Amino acid sequence: MRAALAAWDFGQVSLLVRQHGSLRQEDIVHLTGLSQASLSLVESGKRRLTNLDKIIDFLSGLSVPADLVPRPLREHNHFFQQPVRSDREGLPYGRSTTAPRGPGTRGMSPSTARGAEDPSDAQVLEALPSLSRVIASYDVPDDGPARPLFELEASVHRMTALRLSAQYVDLAQQVPDLLGELSRVRQLARSGERARVAGLLVEAYRATDALAFKFGASDLSARLIELMRWAASETEDPLTASAVAYVRTETFFAARAHAAGLRALENAIDEAPAQSNDQATAARGSLHMRAAVIAARAGDTDAAQTHLVAARELGKGLREGIYRGTAFGPSSVRIHQVSVAVSLGDGHVPRALEAAQGWAPDEREMPAERRSGFYIELALAQLQAQRDDDAFASLNAARRIAPQHTRAHPWVRQATRKLCRRRSVEPALSQFAEWCNVTRSADE
């Protein structure tokens, strides 16, 4: 049993429990909440139990003693930190009186918000309350360490790298303490250092916003963006203001206030600095890219094409790269051609497919988050064109590139549901649907 648990082989755990307690599969189903079909597949080794909530229900349902539970689970869930009874009805691992009962009362309450399948979702979601507390006390931070600015700069740049590579779990684990430390440093900073600290705060808030926005915490995201705007004003740097205007568009996307978002971006373009260097050119080009997409969402074809053309012209003279935390260059503009065409609807799908034809983003020049986003939007275009096999291949490509970004993306679930409705049950599609928390409803 210890070996099976250490290997996370829950099929073997079930078989050992049944053998030792003379139980039937129906008994395990009753105790754990797994379906008969799922339990059969797990016991036969044809499927591994990877959904963290289901694992916790499974182990707590069998009252597996806490000292046998794998350490990551024991440390992750308060239930396994408590003494566990194992004497119910004389069974070796019966459900204890303290165990959560049923799928609606799982021990990991944060993860129920999105039906987390693996530790990644749960860890990000569990970090959000901590982030909210740090944000709430941005001007009255707790006491704690305050490292030199050069060390903080290195830490903030690491957070940006994690954001761009869609490493949300690592980001969630590290950024709360960093935000608190930056808030303390800001209070202690001399007048000549305040602008530098404010710039670091903008960058750190942006990395944090990636977690909030991608995982559906729209109120927290909006709060972070307002703090970005506040901190940007202390930098007195127009390029930082342009970067914040780019991120602020998330608020308009979330509210479906596309026309207002377009106005805000066009105002930001008017206020952006002149194209005196690559950074300034990229700042303006990024704003045009963003404006093209939100114009398309607003149904304004002319504005979308105008901004896309402007972005393309600005990108011609630049090498693809990261400028003030945003990917920009010819390849990024090409990806936005696909995004604009998809947003404009069915009549523009051929343009999306044409822009993507025979081309793939290069991992050497573009971060994982942007590359996976390309394949997600391409999958939507392929679905609209009835190219289901290609769409599923694109979804899998996005997953390979940035699994955490792909799994958190609502359009992935939307595309997967559509595929499930169109196609007969296929193991690969069913496994993908389970991975991204899509279930086949009765009417599908």
Automatic annotation (TrEMBL):
Source taxon at top rank: Bacteria
Stretches for region Disordered: 81-119
Occurrences of domain HTH cro/C1-type (ranges): 25-69
InterPro entries, alphabetized: Cro/C1-type_HTH, Lambda_DNA-bd_dom_sf
The protein, known as: Transcriptional regulator
Organism: Streptomyces meridianus
